[in-house]
């Protein structure tokens, strides 16, 4: 691994990002451009120092991230601590994100010096559950036992059990249940995501009907948004009639170029 001195610090190449070097204290420098250097940087050891971003969430300081481009010019948002750990051999190989995490000896996440870093077994958000509990929970989920009942038995929230079911917790961090998809191509991203949530039923392709709101007079919260577009009958329950009417107005404007009379109803984001 190439080593150079920048600002009196040892710097080594960043793994997978050969245009950059990282110092023993976690500073990252771009040392190559991938193109011919300009007169401003010709003869310099490094081109520029890359800023590290620290985010505060729920009053807790999160680890530092940096934006780096690979040899193909693709931008990546990368955690800095693992880069330092690999470069200065705190880690012998890449971090196993499922089982390992980087911790800080002085508990200061801004102190990225390699001597302050060490590898720990990854901790999960819910400390009430262990690996045996998770195996048992997953078996019960497969058997179709209601999530509320499982949550009550293990003393956790139903949302926590649902996250285990989808793989967000005690998994690889990615949902195992795929997000719904729109039945046909829609250019507007917000409209596409919203239409994906509708119930879909194929109809005769030539039939088209603008969206309307069907109301249940016996129960004000039973409102149904219905329309026929591109050979699909689309329907979605909505509890708020004011929001439903505004959504229908937006959908008809997009799909049918229809614009109903404007009124003083508040706008609703899809």
List keywords for this structure.
270 residues, alpha+beta, Homing Intron 3 (I-Ppo) Encoded Endonuclease, Chain A, 3 domains, four-stranded antiparallel β-sheet, 6 helices, 15 strands, 22% helix, flat, disordered C terminus
How many strand units?
A: 15
- Tell me the domain tally: 3
Into which percentage range does the β-strand content fall? 25-35%
Could you give a short account of the major beta sheet? 5 strands, antiparallel
First and last CA, distance: 50 Å
Shape: flat
Helix/sheet category: alpha+beta
Q: Could you say what the CATH topology of the largest domain is called?
A: Homing Intron 3 (I-Ppo) Encoded Endonuclease, Chain A
CATH architecture verdict of the largest domain: Alpha-Beta Complex
Query: Which spans of ≥5 residues are poorly predicted at pLDDT below 50?
Result: 261-270
Strands of the largest sheet, in order across it?
A: 1-2-3-4-5
> What level of helicity do the residues show?
10-25%
Number of helices: 6
Radius of gyration: 27 Å
The overall pLDDT, averaged over residues, is 83
Secondary-structure element string:
EEEEEEEEEHEEHHHHEEEEH
**For the record, what CATH class of the largest domain applies?**
Alpha Beta
